[in-house]
Design a protein that fits this description.
Layout (H helix, E strand, L loop, with lengths): L1 H22 L4 H11 L4 H11 L1 H4 L1 H10 L8 H22 L3 H31 L6 H32 L2 H8 L1 H10 L2 E2 L12 H12 L2 H14 L5 H10 L5 H26 L4 H17 L1 H5 L2 H4 L4 H29 L6 H29 L10 H11 L12 H9 L4 H5 L10 E2 L1
Antiparallel strand pairs: 1-2
Helix pairs in contact: 1-7, 1-8, 1-10, 3-13, 3-19, 5-7, 5-19, 6-7, 6-9, 6-10, 7-8, 7-19, 8-14, 8-18, 12-19, 14-18, 15-18, 15-20
Length: 447
């Protein structure tokens, strides 16, 4: 009974962290409009700004190593969750007071905020992978269910604030939205008080960070592991023109914050539906088949946006808002289904005792790829002559970025799920186990 309660509360913590990450999207539109209206950035500058503030997500393995091997006040989970929750609360309020007028101050504060969100995210993902890799739940169905649960809860958080993000921006100042957002990391800090975690005692289960890193490096140096990582990185690095599309929506179609909020609401519903659809129908289908077909389908639905930017939708009698809703639904559903097998594969690749570090590395590969994607998109936007007032070449850029998703497909054969499973289950040498944390002895339950 006690173990069952512990498991349920662990899911509660994981779900709360994912939900909080999604609900902090309340400020996303405010940040976008701050860059556009207050900082006077053009699309390429905005894309570059977004890349810089996302750096904390790229170095997630650092946060994973810290929470896996370096206890804070005797704990490896609750202390970090409380610390970064409180720090995030303070930084959001400082951003509200001092960050809107100064791009430099705003950038620094948003980097700090992303450090806090990324660290809390690492804790949630580490717990997620531990559950997926436990003896009683070590199967493909459980990995798919846990990944769907985590990202589904994040989508629920996004859904909870999607429409409000635009509605509030019509009625409140950006600073007020930042202050409201600050309450969410504060909530994580409060919840961390109720986590009961076995305290680390010096000399007992001594952690050797160097040995952990050595085992980690040995693990990822195996072809069955590093080849999928490289493929994931290549796929996520495909260029994006999402920032240029935001400017197109605002300056050409004259969509205001309220309609952008409505679009975010639709996207959030689609994300939840996609997670459900994948978990119900696609989780038992091999990775290469789901990823291959969904990538081709994503290329086709992405290209339909060309009709909007070339104004062909008007000639077809389709209003802009209706087209955007339909286009957004298809892109979001297919895009989520295309991404979900990557997340599940990442969960299956994590070995016992370094779950947090390994999953953080894989998520970092995804985030680093997204950063490269943004930079490549910014370069294409700049050299394509797309500015806040000139969108003549945007259709061509959309086709180029959509076609780039097909490039990794010929290399899918390098991913062999059976080899990944064998490598993950290989026992560690005794000397490598000596300094590891006994994760199964970590109990998280209601205090």
């Amino acid at each position: 009974m006690k173990q069952h309660m512990s498991l349920r509360f662990t899911y509660f913590i994981i779900g709360t962290i994912a939900f909080a990450q999604g609900i902090m999207g309340l400020s996303d539109l405010a940040i976008s409009y701050m860059q556009k209206d207050d900082y006077k950035y053009d699309p390429a500058q905005t894309q570059f700004f977004g890349t810089l503030i996302s750096i904390p997500w790229i170095i997630k393995p650092v946060w994973g190593i810290m929470t896996d091997t370096i206890p804070l006040f005797g704990f490896r989970r609750k202390s970090y969750l409380m610390l970064f929750g409180l720090l995030g609360f303070m930084l959001w309020n400082v951003l509200a007071d001092y960050g809107v007028e100064s791009p430099e101050v705003g950038m620094g504060l948003l980097v700090g905020i992303n450090v806090c969100v990324a660290f809390c995210n690492v804790i949630g993902e580490a717990l997620l992978v531990e559950l997926s890799g436990s003896v009683e739940s070590q199967n493909d169905d459980k990995a798919s269910q846990n990944v769907s649960f985590f990202f589904g809860m994040r989508s629920v958080g996004t859904l909870a604030t999607a429409y409000l993000s635009g509605e509030l921006l019509d009625h409140l100042d950006k600073r007020d939205i930042y202050r409201i957002t600050s309450t969410f990391p504060l909530g994580l800090a409060i919840i961390s008080i109720f986590i009961k975690e076995k305290k680390y005692v010096k000399g007992e289960h001594e952690v050797n960070t160097a040995e952990t890193l050595a085992h980690f490096c040995k693990f990822i140096s195996q072809p069955a592991i590093y080849r999928p990582i490289l493929l994931i990185l290549a796929f996520m690095s495909c260029p994006s023109v999402s920032t240029a599309m935001f400017y197109f929506y605002s300056n050409v179609l004259h969509f205001g914050p309220e309609f952008n909020g409505e679009l975010r609401l639709v996207y959030s519903v689609c994300s939840i539906f996609s997670s459900y659809l994948y978990n119900r129908l696609l989780k038992n289908i091999p990775f290469k088949k789901v990823f291959g077909y969904s990538t081709v389908l994503y290329f086709m639905v992405s290209c339909q946006t060309i009709l909007l930017v070339t104004r062909k939708n008007i000639k077809l009698g389709i209003p802009d808002k209706l087209f955007c809703f339909g286009d957004g639904v298809l892109n979001q559903v297919v895009g989520e289904i295309n991404t979900m097998p990557i997340l599940v594969l990442a969960c299956k690749m994590c070995p016992k005792n370094i779950e947090g570090t390994m999953y953080a590395l894989l998520m970092s590969a995804i985030n680093f790829g997204a950063m490269i994607s943004g930079q490549l998109g910014a370069i294409l936007t700049y050299y394509g002559g797309v500015t806040e007032n000139d969108f003549d070449n945007l259709g061509l850029l959309i086709f180029i970025t959509s076609a780039s998703y097909l490039i990794p497909l010929p290399f899918l054969s390098i991913i062999r799920e059976e080899d990944i499973a064998k490598v993950r289950e290989q026992p560690l040498a005794k000397e490598e186990l000596k300094g590891e944390i006994e994760k199964e002895e970590e109990i998280i339950e209601v205090q």
